[in-house]
Amino acid sequence: DPSMPPSGVSCSGCGAELQCRDNVAPGFIPAEKYRSLSEGPTGLAGLRGAVCQRCWLLAHHGQALRLCLPPEQHRLVVSAALRRPPRHGRGPLLLYVLDILELPDPVLPQLPGLLGPDVPAAGVLVVGNKVDLLPADSPGHLGRLRRQLAAACSQAGLSGAPLVDVRLVSAKTGFGLERLVSRLQSSWKCAGDVYLLGATNSGKSTLFNSLLQSDYCKSRAPDIINRATVSPWPGTTLNLLKFPIINPTCDRIFRRQERLKEEATKTEDQLTSEERKYLNQLKKQGYLVGEVGRTFQRQKSIPVVDFDPDMLSYSVDEDPKNSARKHEEREEFTYNEVKDARWCFDTPGIIKENCVLNLLTEKEVKLVLPTHAIVPRTFILKPGMVLFLAALGRVDYLQGEKPAWFSVVASNLLPVHISTLSNADGLYKKYAGQEFLKVPMGGEERMKEFPQLVPQDITLKGIGTTEAVADIKLSSAGWVAVTAHKEEKLLLRAYTPEGTALVVREPPLLPYISAIRGARIAGTAAYRTKKPPSLVENLKTTERR
């Protein structure tokens, strides 16, 4: 309905202004629904807490609506937010969230330019998210990942005073989140606002939702503020979302520490059946699991039952009278609760350029982005052999004296196929777009519009049969860790779709990944897969005999 004016009310899922004027613009709600919410006793305030059609479909049906949104729109929203005048006399803390699988993060080097000299940021804390998806390839692997993250920050121009700290977490399983909250409360306290920044699909909105349910948030906020919409579709958040940060007074920090100490003495057997059930679900999803608790719970008031005698005063021959129901008012913060509040903002994700996800459909994105613990798949290849990762990436072993090990770290739903150089082109031509290679899907018609694979030659020198020399990162589809005999020279040729980034990552993210494998499968180049056990944080381990 183009005649309806803009609402001035934001979608509680993505932050876009709710409207019913244009069904391909952000924040659209069907006109009938819009009017039913906005023409009640509270007027446009009736839209508060509502979500747009796009968020509804993402959350309930996993469907993504294409929006007419300029690529730079997300960046402009972030840039404008950061250039606001400092509140409380101090610039904000920037919580930069990156997908640890995406190192080197393509947006991180752009951060100094995005901030610019006129952004009064007090500091940057970099959070490496999705660490739960990666198996432990050796003792101390988390310390190594953290050092690699710090090195990536230094290479991107973030070092010294601007960089407050680097942390590893899983916003999905809760691993590392209690320590992140403690770090924020001990160092940043409640000095100013906090902005969550990062590329699309880095997990910012998942982290926002987890912090909303933690001790970092005012105790009443989870009852008032809706959770952000989370989906694998890039660019779900379209504008700013926020919650008020709790003031970490000495008393609150003491009570929080007492809760954490008490929980650390519990074993898994002491959890309730519901807690154990939830924990087992998280273990299936990730290798690293943590519980996020709340010290400052709001006391729930006992609901008052309205007794309406008129509703009961009818005989069997009469219809019940329709008593006018009281309008259920949505809870709001009082002025005193938020007049001096510091806020945590979730911002739109910055679109990654040269990313394979930008070429994929909604169904294909769901297959490519890993959502459960990645089980590495290792193959031993001789010169003249080829490895396909779906139809999104290919690695040819062109020259070398000895066999080498190729370990694939990618979504468990993506197929890996081994071929020979003489058959590889024919295999791709025959099966790209088909179920055999899975992604892309849609047959010949889909492949006509899909960019062709383009090659890049890579030369590596092995450092031993137990340690990978490099990762060949096939855009955001995953990577192949290459392990070769010491001093062995390899000539490889890797392919990704035209217009996407192929990166040779040295040192590799998981150098000992080839050790996570079972026995060789007879008559093939593959080894049986092996999934390491999950580690639960914040719980006392019990010795099992």
UniProtKB/TrEMBL annotation:
InterPro entries for the chain: GTP-bd (IPR006073), Mito_transl_resp_regulator (IPR052807), NOA1/YqeH-like_C (IPR048422), P-loop_NTPase (IPR027417)
Record keywords: Coiled coil
Gene Ontology terms, MF aspect: GTP binding
Coiled-coil spans in chain: 250-277
Coiled coil keyword on record: yes
Domain G: 194-244
Sequence ranges assigned to domain NOA1/YqeH-like C-terminal in this UniProt record: 406-506
One Pfam family this sequence matches: MMR_HSR1
Name the record gives this protein: NOA1 protein
Protein's organism: Nycticryphes semicollaris
